[in-house]
Protein backbone atom coordinates (compact mmCIF):
# COMPACT_ATOMS: atom_id res chain seq x y z
CA UNK A 1 0.00 0.00 0.00
CA UNK A 2 1.31 3.47 -0.92
CA UNK A 3 1.17 5.98 1.94
CA UNK A 4 1.21 9.76 1.77
CA UNK A 5 4.83 9.80 2.86
CA UNK A 6 5.77 7.51 -0.04
CA UNK A 7 4.12 9.73 -2.61
CA UNK A 8 6.00 12.48 -4.39
CA UNK A 9 3.69 15.48 -4.17
CA UNK A 10 4.42 19.18 -4.21
CA UNK A 11 3.39 21.76 -1.61
CA UNK A 12 0.01 22.16 -3.32
CA UNK A 13 -0.67 18.44 -3.18
CA UNK A 14 -0.08 17.76 -6.87
CA UNK A 15 1.97 14.76 -8.11
CA UNK A 16 5.54 15.75 -8.94
CA UNK A 17 6.50 15.37 -12.60
CA UNK A 18 10.27 15.56 -13.01
CA UNK A 19 9.83 16.25 -16.74
CA UNK A 20 8.31 19.64 -15.94
CA UNK A 21 10.75 20.57 -13.15
CA UNK A 22 13.10 23.53 -13.73
CA UNK A 23 15.78 21.46 -12.00
CA UNK A 24 15.28 18.34 -14.15
CA UNK A 25 18.89 18.43 -15.38
CA UNK A 26 19.99 17.62 -11.84
CA UNK A 27 18.19 14.30 -11.99
CA UNK A 28 20.53 12.95 -14.66
CA UNK A 29 23.50 14.26 -12.71
CA UNK A 30 22.16 12.40 -9.65
CA UNK A 31 21.99 15.63 -7.68
CA UNK A 32 18.32 15.10 -6.87
CA UNK A 33 16.03 12.09 -6.57
CA UNK A 34 12.26 11.69 -6.56
CA UNK A 35 10.90 11.05 -3.05
CA UNK A 36 14.37 11.53 -1.59
CA UNK A 37 15.99 14.87 -2.49
CA UNK A 38 13.60 17.23 -4.21
CA UNK A 39 13.01 20.96 -3.94
CA UNK A 40 9.49 20.54 -5.31
CA UNK A 41 8.47 18.06 -2.62
CA UNK A 42 6.20 19.09 0.24
CA UNK A 43 8.29 17.32 2.90
CA UNK A 44 10.96 19.41 4.59
CA UNK A 45 13.37 16.49 4.93
CA UNK A 46 13.45 15.93 1.18
CA UNK A 47 13.85 19.65 0.57
CA UNK A 48 16.70 19.77 3.07
CA UNK A 49 18.46 16.87 1.36
CA UNK A 50 18.11 18.65 -1.98
CA UNK A 51 19.90 21.75 -0.68
CA UNK A 52 22.49 19.63 1.12
CA UNK A 53 23.31 18.16 -2.28
CA UNK A 54 23.02 21.51 -4.04
CA UNK A 55 23.83 24.33 -1.59
CA UNK A 56 24.68 26.70 -4.40
CA UNK A 57 21.02 26.80 -5.39
CA UNK A 58 19.76 28.01 -2.01
CA UNK A 59 20.10 31.74 -2.75
CA UNK A 60 17.73 31.39 -5.67
CA UNK A 61 14.96 29.84 -3.59
CA UNK A 62 14.65 32.40 -0.78
CA UNK A 63 11.52 33.84 -2.41
CA UNK A 64 9.85 30.51 -3.11
CA UNK A 65 6.08 30.54 -2.42
CA UNK A 66 6.32 27.51 -0.11
CA UNK A 67 7.51 28.46 3.38
CA UNK A 68 9.34 25.16 3.91
CA UNK A 69 11.50 25.81 0.88
CA UNK A 70 12.34 29.31 2.12
CA UNK A 71 13.07 28.05 5.64
CA UNK A 72 15.35 25.25 4.47
CA UNK A 73 17.05 27.40 1.84
CA UNK A 74 17.88 29.89 4.61
CA UNK A 75 20.04 27.18 6.22
CA UNK A 76 22.26 26.96 3.15
CA UNK A 77 22.08 30.40 1.54
CA UNK A 78 24.78 33.04 1.84
CA UNK A 79 24.18 34.94 5.07
CA UNK A 80 24.26 38.23 3.15
CA UNK A 81 21.00 37.26 1.43
CA UNK A 82 19.06 36.59 4.63
CA UNK A 83 18.23 40.07 5.93
CA UNK A 84 14.96 40.43 3.93
CA UNK A 85 13.71 37.20 5.54
CA UNK A 86 13.61 38.85 8.96
CA UNK A 87 10.23 40.15 7.86
CA UNK A 88 9.04 36.89 6.29
CA UNK A 89 5.38 36.18 6.92
CA UNK A 90 6.10 32.69 8.24
CA UNK A 91 7.63 32.12 11.68
CA UNK A 92 9.46 28.98 10.53
CA UNK A 93 11.44 31.07 8.07
CA UNK A 94 12.20 33.75 10.67
CA UNK A 95 13.28 31.04 13.13
CA UNK A 96 15.64 29.61 10.52
CA UNK A 97 17.12 33.03 9.82
CA UNK A 98 17.54 33.72 13.54
CA UNK A 99 19.91 30.76 13.77
CA UNK A 100 22.31 32.17 11.21
CA UNK A 101 22.38 35.95 11.17
CA UNK A 102 24.87 37.70 13.47
CA UNK A 103 23.16 38.57 16.79
CA UNK A 104 23.19 42.33 16.11
CA UNK A 105 20.71 41.79 13.29
CA UNK A 106 18.21 39.97 15.49
CA UNK A 107 17.02 42.96 17.51
CA UNK A 108 13.80 43.34 15.57
CA UNK A 109 12.94 39.71 16.35
CA UNK A 110 13.08 40.20 20.14
CA UNK A 111 9.38 41.03 20.05
CA UNK A 112 8.41 38.54 17.37
CA UNK A 113 4.82 37.31 17.61
CA UNK A 114 5.92 33.67 17.90
CA UNK A 115 7.64 32.29 20.99
CA UNK A 116 9.81 29.83 19.05
CA UNK A 117 11.44 32.72 17.23
CA UNK A 118 11.99 34.65 20.47
CA UNK A 119 13.44 31.55 22.15
CA UNK A 120 15.98 31.25 19.36
CA UNK A 121 16.77 34.95 19.62
CA UNK A 122 17.23 34.69 23.40
CA UNK A 123 19.79 31.95 22.83
CA UNK A 124 21.86 34.21 20.61
CA UNK A 125 21.63 37.89 21.53
CA UNK A 126 23.95 39.45 24.10
CA UNK A 127 24.22 42.43 26.43
CA UNK A 128 21.37 44.91 26.50
CA UNK A 129 19.40 42.93 23.91
CA UNK A 130 19.39 39.87 26.16
CA UNK A 131 18.67 41.99 29.23
CA UNK A 132 15.58 43.45 27.57
CA UNK A 133 14.13 39.97 27.06
CA UNK A 134 14.02 39.22 30.80
CA UNK A 135 10.46 40.60 30.80
CA UNK A 136 9.23 38.50 27.86
CA UNK A 137 5.66 37.26 28.23
CA UNK A 138 6.68 33.65 27.62
CA UNK A 139 8.13 31.77 30.59
CA UNK A 140 10.50 29.67 28.49
CA UNK A 141 12.04 32.73 26.88
CA UNK A 142 12.68 34.08 30.38
CA UNK A 143 14.21 30.74 31.40
CA UNK A 144 16.69 31.02 28.55
CA UNK A 145 17.49 34.58 29.62
CA UNK A 146 17.97 33.47 33.24
CA UNK A 147 20.49 30.84 32.12
CA UNK A 148 22.50 33.34 30.09
CA UNK A 149 22.18 36.68 31.86
CA UNK A 150 25.15 37.93 33.85
CA UNK A 151 25.09 36.84 37.50
CA UNK A 152 25.08 40.42 38.76
CA UNK A 153 21.83 41.12 36.90
CA UNK A 154 19.93 38.06 38.11
CA UNK A 155 18.55 39.83 41.18
CA UNK A 156 16.13 41.52 38.79
CA UNK A 157 14.59 38.11 38.05
CA UNK A 158 14.31 36.84 41.64
CA UNK A 159 10.58 37.57 41.74
CA UNK A 160 9.68 36.23 38.31
CA UNK A 161 6.14 34.87 38.13
CA UNK A 162 7.35 31.46 36.91
CA UNK A 163 8.88 29.12 39.49
CA UNK A 164 11.07 27.49 36.85
CA UNK A 165 12.71 30.84 36.16
CA UNK A 166 13.28 31.47 39.86
CA UNK A 167 14.86 28.02 40.25
CA UNK A 168 17.43 28.90 37.60
CA UNK A 169 18.06 32.20 39.35
CA UNK A 170 18.57 30.38 42.66
CA UNK A 171 21.09 28.06 40.98
CA UNK A 172 23.15 30.89 39.50
CA UNK A 173 22.78 34.01 41.62
CA UNK A 174 25.59 35.07 43.94
CA UNK A 175 25.43 33.45 47.37
CA UNK A 176 25.15 36.86 49.01
CA UNK A 177 21.87 37.45 47.20
CA UNK A 178 20.29 34.11 48.13
CA UNK A 179 18.77 34.80 51.59
CA UNK A 180 15.64 36.61 50.31
CA UNK A 181 14.86 33.56 48.15
CA UNK A 182 14.68 31.34 51.25
CA UNK A 183 11.05 32.44 51.62
CA UNK A 184 10.09 31.71 48.00
CA UNK A 185 6.59 30.18 47.75
CA UNK A 186 7.88 27.29 45.62
CA UNK A 187 9.57 24.41 47.47
CA UNK A 188 11.83 23.59 44.50
CA UNK A 189 13.23 27.11 44.64
CA UNK A 190 13.83 26.88 48.38
CA UNK A 191 15.55 23.53 47.85
CA UNK A 192 18.00 25.17 45.45
CA UNK A 193 18.61 27.86 48.07
CA UNK A 194 19.21 25.22 50.75
CA UNK A 195 21.82 23.57 48.53
CA UNK A 196 23.80 26.78 48.10
CA UNK A 197 23.40 28.91 51.21
CA UNK A 198 26.42 28.89 53.55
CA UNK A 199 25.88 26.35 56.35
CA UNK A 200 25.67 29.05 59.02
CA UNK A 201 22.78 30.74 57.21
CA UNK A 202 20.52 27.68 56.92
CA UNK A 203 18.75 28.21 60.24
CA UNK A 204 15.81 29.97 58.59
CA UNK A 205 15.04 26.80 56.61
CA UNK A 206 15.17 24.34 59.53
CA UNK A 207 11.39 24.44 59.86
CA UNK A 208 10.59 24.66 56.16
CA UNK A 209 7.22 23.01 55.37
CA UNK A 210 8.84 20.79 52.73
CA UNK A 211 10.71 17.75 54.07
CA UNK A 212 13.14 17.79 51.13
CA UNK A 213 14.30 21.24 52.11
CA UNK A 214 14.66 20.25 55.77
CA UNK A 215 16.62 17.13 54.80
CA UNK A 216 19.04 19.23 52.75
CA UNK A 217 19.41 21.55 55.72
CA UNK A 218 20.11 18.58 57.99
CA UNK A 219 22.94 17.47 55.72
CA UNK A 220 24.65 20.88 55.74
CA UNK A 221 23.62 23.07 58.65
CA UNK A 222 26.21 23.85 61.34
CA UNK A 223 26.33 21.26 64.13
CA UNK A 224 24.99 23.66 66.72
CA UNK A 225 21.60 23.70 65.01
CA UNK A 226 21.27 19.94 64.59
CA UNK A 227 19.77 19.12 68.06
CA UNK A 228 16.67 21.10 67.11
CA UNK A 229 16.17 18.76 64.14
CA UNK A 230 16.31 15.51 66.12
CA UNK A 231 12.58 15.67 66.67
CA UNK A 232 11.65 16.42 63.07
CA UNK A 233 8.38 14.79 62.03
CA UNK A 234 10.06 13.27 58.97
CA UNK A 235 12.14 10.21 59.96
CA UNK A 236 14.74 10.77 57.25
CA UNK A 237 15.38 14.31 58.46
CA UNK A 238 15.71 13.31 62.11
CA UNK A 239 17.86 10.33 61.12
CA UNK A 240 20.26 12.59 59.21
CA UNK A 241 20.51 14.90 62.22
CA UNK A 242 21.33 11.92 64.48
CA UNK A 243 23.91 10.55 62.07
CA UNK A 244 25.68 13.87 61.87
CA UNK A 245 25.63 14.28 65.64
CA UNK A 246 26.87 10.73 66.08
CA UNK A 247 24.20 10.00 68.66
CA UNK A 248 21.84 7.05 69.22
CA UNK A 249 19.22 9.33 70.70
CA UNK A 250 15.78 8.13 69.58
CA UNK A 251 12.65 10.12 69.38
CA UNK A 252 9.33 8.65 70.48
CA UNK A 253 7.44 6.79 67.83
CA UNK A 254 4.08 5.00 67.69
CA UNK A 255 4.02 1.40 68.99
CA UNK A 256 4.88 -1.07 66.23
CA UNK A 257 6.55 1.52 63.99
CA UNK A 258 9.70 0.19 62.26
CA UNK A 259 13.06 1.18 63.69
CA UNK A 260 15.13 3.77 61.88
CA UNK A 261 18.40 2.82 60.24
CA UNK A 262 20.49 4.19 63.10
CA UNK A 263 18.59 1.90 65.51
CA UNK A 264 19.01 -1.24 63.42
CA UNK A 265 22.77 -1.54 63.61
CA UNK A 266 23.90 -5.05 64.46
CA UNK A 267 25.55 -5.40 67.89
CA UNK A 268 29.31 -5.69 67.95
CA UNK A 269 30.22 -9.33 68.84
List keywords for this structure.
269 residues, mainly alpha, 37% helix
CA radius of gyration is 30 Å
- Given helix and strand content, the structural type is mainly alpha
The count of strands amounts to 0
Span between N and C termini? 76 Å
Q: What composes the largest sheet?
A: none
The oligomeric status of these chains comes to single chain
What's the total helix number?
A: 11
Q: What fraction, in percent, of the residue positions are helical?
A: 25-40%
User: If you average the pLDDT, what whole number results?
Assistant: 89
Strand content: under 5%
Question: What letter string, H or E per element, gives the SSE order?
Answer: HHHHHHHHHHH
User: Rough shape?
Assistant: elongated
Low-confidence stretches: 248-258, 260-269
Amino acid sequence: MTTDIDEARDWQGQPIDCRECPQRALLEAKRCATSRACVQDRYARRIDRFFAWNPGLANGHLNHPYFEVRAVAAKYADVFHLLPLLKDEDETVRWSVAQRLPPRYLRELKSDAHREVRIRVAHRVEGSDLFAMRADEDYYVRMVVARRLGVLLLELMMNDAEAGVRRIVAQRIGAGSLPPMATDPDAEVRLEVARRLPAEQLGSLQRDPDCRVRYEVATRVVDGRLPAMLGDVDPMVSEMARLRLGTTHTRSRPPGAPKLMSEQRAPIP
